[in-house]
């Protein structure tokens, strides 16, 4: 089953953007994520529309944070990357007149809707800066410099 890693990847990118404190090119970000620059630009466009990142073209340009990490929640980033499906579970719809299918779908839909709402409420409580702080604690516990890249850890 294929999963959607946009939220995780963009959170990763935002943390590195703060660490770099300089514009990061789409090529640089793509290399870090093992993807292509066009995909990076498309995904970051949603974050730019929300004001979470800014971009500058030309020599010395690139992507930078548009606001502090403490002013962004996981929910903000989730919404900015297009609100990807949270669950891979789906409802059967090949027999819509079947009373058994209707009963199953009603129970599943209600449960999935409740779980999604709970998860999105929790996303709204977690600031991206909380992830940065967690990373810093982990690095300190291992005696690592906080500024290490993922490849150096």
From TrEMBL:
InterPro entries: Tscrpt_reg_Rrf2 (IPR000944), WH-like_DNA-bd_sf (IPR036388), WH_DNA-bd_sf (IPR036390). GO terms for cellular component: cytosol. SUPFAM superfamilies: Winged helix' DNA-binding domain. One of its GO terms (molecular function) is DNA-binding transcription factor activity. Gene3D superfamilies: Winged helix-like DNA-binding domain superfamily/Winged helix DNA-binding domain. PANTHER family: HTH-TYPE TRANSCRIPTIONAL REGULATOR YWGB-RELATED (PTHR33221:SF15), WINGED HELIX-TURN-HELIX TRANSCRIPTIONAL REGULATOR, RRF2 FAMILY (PTHR33221). This is Transcriptional regulator. It comes from Pleomorphomonas diazotrophica.
């Amino acid at each position: 089953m294929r999963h959607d890693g946009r939220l995780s990847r963009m959170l990763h990118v935002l943390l590195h953007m703060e660490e770099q404190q300089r514009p990061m090119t789409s090529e640089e970000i793509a290399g870090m994520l093992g993807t292509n620059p066009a995909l990076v630009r498309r995904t970051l466009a949603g974050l730019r529309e929300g004001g979470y990142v800014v971009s500058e073209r030309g020599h010395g340009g690139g992507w930078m944070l548009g606001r502090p990490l403490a002013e962004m929640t996981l929910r903000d980033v989730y919404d900015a990357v297009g609100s990807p499906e949270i669950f891979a579970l789906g409802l059967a719809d090949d027999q819509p007149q079947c009373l058994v299918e209707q009963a199953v779908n009603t129970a599943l839909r209600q449960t999935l809707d409740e779980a999604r709402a709970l998860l999105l409420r929790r996303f709204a409580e977690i600031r991206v800066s909380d992830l940065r702080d967690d990373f810093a604690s982990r690095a300190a516990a291992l005696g690592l410099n906080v500024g290490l890249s993922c490849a150096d850890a």
